[in-house]
Model the fold of this input.
Amino acid sequence: MYTQKSFVLKPAEADKKWILIDANDQVVGRLATKIADILRGKNSPKFTPHTDSGDFVVVVNADKVRFTGKKLDEKKYYWHTGFVGGIKSRTAKEQLAKNPELILMNAVKGMLPKNSLGRKQLTKLKVFAGENHNHDAQNPQKLEL
Done:
């Protein structure tokens, strides 16, 4: 009797590539979903949900991302200082001026699994505000979106 076996990718067998994405004039949420899929490995036919089989992603021009609607003025980013009454917030416009890398990092983080595997996959994301990045030695392949 023939039984079909499921394919399971072992972490050592995953060939991880480096991908370069230009975020210039890209909508934040749509870009974040593409990045999250690449980090998880869902763009590969060898995708295994419980294995870190995704690629490394380098994002440049994070300061030139786009928001739709009124999100630039009305969307807020919150964090807590750890002190009593220490909740802080910034609008998306202020966050884009102050720390644009965190906008994409937070968007992608929310789309990854909330466990140790998701935290490990998030470390493979490298976001840079400008055109320059320090991963030329890895020779990342440019991905057109």
